[in-house]
TrEMBL record:
It comes from the Bacteria. One of its GO terms (molecular function) is fatty acyl-CoA hydrolase activity. Gene3D superfamilies: Hotdog Thioesterase. SUPFAM superfamilies: Thioesterase/thiol ester dehydrase-isomerase. It comes from Campylobacter californiensis. Keywords: Hydrolase. The keyword Hydrolase applies. This is Acyl-CoA thioesterase. InterPro entries: 4-hydroxybenzoyl-CoA_TE, HotDog_dom_sf.
Length: 130
């Protein structure tokens, strides 16, 4: 498990009518953190297309513990874990000042876009995230 930390500041477009980060914005940040992590280890969108294996989301879940507000500096800790032959889960811990204010996870299937079906995650891809 190779943990990755994505740092950002809560922007105006993330704020809801209650003055804190909207629950839907967490999913945007999850995607940004996941892409940043994948790009860092070399599992870019371009590389996925070249090897004919892409990640597709099957489920997203989030639990909100405490609110964050406009301008708050936050860190998103993320890591992956292979589940089965063709599936993986990515975990997230959202932190502000070292304290967790939300947790989340995304389940993925490794997918062959030419055959339109799941396929086994290659060992070399699993090693990128170890």
């Amino acid at each position: 498990m190779k943990e990755f930390i994505y740092k950002t500041t809560v922007p105006p477009q993330a704020i809801d009518m209650h003055g804190h980060m909207n629950n839907t914005y967490y999913f945007i940040l999850m995607q940004e953190a996941a892409f940043a992590h994948s790009n860092t280890v070399g599992d870019t969108i371009e590389a996925q297309k070249e090897r004919n294996g892409v990640w597709l989301i099957t489920t997203n879940e989030a639990s909100y513990i405490a609110p964050v507000k406009l301008g708050d500096k936050i860190e998103i800790y993320t890591w992956t874990q292979a589940l089965k032959r063709a599936s993986s889960v990515r975990f997230f811990e959202f932190k502000k000042d070292g304290e967790i204010f939300a947790t989340a996870k995304t389940c993925f299937v490794y997918f062959d876009p030419q055959k339109s079906r799941p396929k086994a995650i290659p060992q070399e891809i699993l090693k990128l995230y170890e």
